[in-house]
Here is the input.
Amino acid sequence: MIDFTGTSAQQANNFNAPTAVCMAAVLYVFRSLVDDDIPLNAGCLKPIEVIIPPGSMLNPHPPASVVAGNVETSTCITNALLGALGVSAASQCTMNNFTFGNDRYQYYETISGGSGAGGLFDETGGLVGGFAGTGVVQTHMTNSRLTDPEVLEFRFPVRLESYALRPDSGGAGRWPGGPGGVRRIRFLEPMTASILSNGRQHGAFGMAGGAPGQPGINRVVRVDGTVETLAHIGQAQMAAGDVFEVHTPGGGGFGSR
Here is the structure.
């Protein structure tokens, strides 16, 4: 049984998740744990009873806003289930939804981060090994790909300054969490840029003695060198020469050193 009783009530913001999104996360987690070649269909959930209280943020009443439920809340559900099962530490709990545009251009991307480290177990549940997290990778519900740099710069008046590993952002442990990344985009003409993200206050949790990963950071570096830090949801008016930086979260570590 998967019982979401105790989940927060539906929110006034848009982080509510429709029940279908919650069920998709449950299906994903348990299908990924089946060590056999079985089809992915509704039959996977037959052995599992799922309780999702009406009026909660995972089963909201209309007309609740749900736009962030699929991209953000679903990743939190997945991490929570894998953690409750003792399988792995948390991966970044966000898709880092980044958008920019003006009257002529509009663009949207999700940005990868660190995955959580985990354990390998035998039939009795005994720990027989583990695996480190992977750096700058799309995890769990974040199954999208980035636009090639050449295409991005050809189609939009921006320059991809850098996209690199974020050192020491993965949680320490016997098997460390994967590091997040730092993505820097310089604007060549005025635009509005926005970020919708999670994991900016609390890092991805570690497991079995592993440390949590570093939280993410959103900030704008103005052409004059001034730095403005944005919240997990933020918007900025970008002038020509300004840089938008997204430091994505690292994954949690697994096991004591």
In short: The chain has three helices and 13 strands. The first strand starts at residue 2 and ends at 3.
